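Workshop exercise sheet. Pairs work together: one partner reads the sequence aloud, the other fills in the structure field after running the prediction. Swap roles for the next sheet.
Pair: D.N. / O.F.
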Amino acid sequence: MQERPTLAESRTAREGLPAGWEVVIGLEIHVELATRSKVFCGCSTEFGAPPNTHVCPVCLGLPGSLPVLNEKAVEYAVRAGLALNCRVAERAKFDRKNYFYPDLPKAYQISQYDRPLCTDGWLDVQVDGQTRRVGIIRVHLEEETGKLVHSTATIVGSRYSLVDYNRSGVPLIEIVTRPDLRSPEEARLFLEELRSIMLYLGVSDVKMEEGSLRCDANVSVRRPGERRLGTKTEVKNLNTFKAVERALRYEAWRQAAILEEGGVVRQETRGWDEASGSTILMRTKETVEDYRYFPEPDVPPVELDPSWVESIRRSLPELPSARRRRLQEAYKLPAYDASVLCEHPALADFFEAVARRTGDPKAASNWVMGEVLRLLRAMGMEPADLAGRETWVAYLSEVLALVRGGTVTASVGKEVLEESLRTDQPPSAIVRARGLEQVGDETQLVQWVRQAIAANPDAVASYRSGKEQAAGFLVGQVMKLSRGKANPKVVGELVRQELGPPGRG
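Structure field:
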């Protein structure tokens, strides 16, 4: 019965949650910290090095090696905890979490159990215009494990796995939420907000594709109004925000199907299989007792000076939620614009620089959200790559001035901006060299309009039968003939002059 959820299989993961059931979700998020060296040794944390080249006796767990705590990792963990409204402990300690797995060379992980660095926080998330407060149980510091490299894309169906210990010992914070999330969408939105906060803090690059942000989810279902939580399963292998939402929706259906068939949900760990769109049993779920936690004898407890913690608090940057509010108030932007621009601090910085330079925040927002993000994707770049690009700020500002002043059309402006960013040439120089100035000569415009009308009799007939949208098609044809240099507003007027009012066939 456990693997035959008829309700779940009869619906796709894109549909809503099962009627008559409430899903309860708690998240365990792992964030690799952006220190240059590992948490207990001096090995590099650089991603992408050849396997097993950034290792030493400490991170390989060789006998006689002793760990030494990285102060910067503690600072970053405290920084994250403060941003999540946590209480920072004055005294924290490390513990050994014992379990056997090939990626854990010591057969234990140095983590934190009963005295973590940060506890009792919260994070507000906007869901359908409503604020949902999600409790944070703890933020603790631990060491990363190694990485298994499977013979296929995932462990499911692999014939063998190899182990790369470069990641072993990279500093990691685990953020554990309370079971406050009530839908897969809320879980996704929470993760997106958390990712932005980590970027703003500068404590991690939070790249899911490189494993520096990973998420496990604890999922259960219950009848609405019930206070007791249902039996939870842990879902792993959630490598994208989309996968998080799909996996949680599927798992809610699977559990509801089992219960409606009279079965019992088992506490177990399941992996998300993107290919099949389902969760797959990995192992029965361990309990805390299975890990046999005990104090780490080789790492002394950490005493945190309250004045040091307070200095970190004062150094916190403006966080995404505050910046979204400020952009809406200071620049009169819609909530949607502010939300997109504030996803990454470098993107918001870029927008603000252009807005200040041009004095036209809405135009700056439209172009940054549209053309700039499109060009970044086309050039294989990310929003982080905008940091420090003052010439790009100047180029976009100049393009906006050219469009606003009527020197070029918006479509030509997009073409010029792309060439400027790719070749590092000023937009005005490109416009002069290629003769891209907007054509305002009415004689030339009328000639193009008549040419378009003659070449498109079906569109003309449609317009004369009363379908006014056909005029837009003809304007588009004129823009093609002019290679984007015609003034579209003037062209629209000329088309109507040539054809008369619509419906007069």
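Discussion prompt: The chain has a mean pLDDT of 89. What would you look at next?
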